[in-house]
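Morning F.,

Quick status update on the modeling queue. The single chain you submitted on Monday has been processed. Sequence for confirmation:
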Amino acid sequence: MRVLLLAHKPPYPIIDGGCKAIESSLMALVNAGVSVDLLTFTTHKHPGKGEWPNHENFNFYKVPIDTRVKTFPAIKALIQNKSYNLNRFKSKAWRTQFQELTSKNTYDIIHAESLFSLADLDWIKSITSTPVIYRSHNVEASIWFDLKEASGGLKKPYLNLLAKQIKKAEMEIAKNVTGIIAIQFEDEKWYSDLGIQHTTTLLPSQDTFGDSDYKNNSFYHLGAMDWQPNLEGVQWLIEEIWPMVLKEIPEAKLSLAGKNFPKDVKGFKGINLEGEVESSHEFIQSHGIALIPLKSGGGIKIKLLEAAALGKPVVSTSKGLEGTDLGEDEVFLGNTAQEFADAMIEAWKKEDVRGDKGRRLKTWARKNLGPEACQKSLVSFYKEILEA
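Structure tokens below.
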């Protein structure tokens, strides 16, 4: 079997959840013996530099694209009532590379990671009859509707318009692909309700399982701040939740890691800003309790899966657990600032409870996130499509 895998950003280096999700699909295919050609955009945020893995049945092709927001194209899209977020991922150079690959090679499946790699779906279908599988990282419109609800003033109607535009484009793309692989069960239902015949859910696999030191009660958050739900969550954590935690536990420590952190974070007591880290695994293992203070954002959270695979105690909102069947048996849960602070305080004080929840979380991860399960599910879904 030969697959052309399309990505809106390179999987390497793995610097955020999106990269990890793409890498999970890529490695599942490669390890299952599938020949994969990866066609990916590279951007100013994700230049794709550094060392890439070398596999006999894996080739990659990079196409640079400028996705920075520009005033005139944004206004043009607004007037035309089209999604500018999606239009930024259309490229003549990408079309040329795609056409070259599909003319030289015969692919059984075109697998597209995220909505943005299918910005040119109509054109793709005009030149090839190969089945197109859309691997959805989230229902993109839900993120924008969540952000709209959390905003105010003139920003609210503008975000509402952007949400409606992306939803319209998302529904059109979903109805015009051969099959959809959702990243969480709630998303699969959303696509099924649109009448999509071939859908499945595939959680991103984790290849790093390990043990945690439950004596370590330091807090940490890992996430890129160029994703608005992360930024919103960390601001909520710092401004509303952290002062309540410090009042009860003056010696508490919180480490924040990820790219593009706001500069004003540094002045808060007990907070250590580590910025972009070289190894997320080493950062996670050097700290005790994972925090997922998300109030918006769709899709399953890679930071949750990484923590689960290592058996880390986790304090999360319900939004942070979306896409899983996890609950208070496995994590400390809080949805208001006071509830989240209370959950952090309990996690910090009770070693036996955080150890119990961490071990239950790891058991769940081993059952649901192993690479073998991911490989089997993905290839099985491909065969279902090809035999339909």
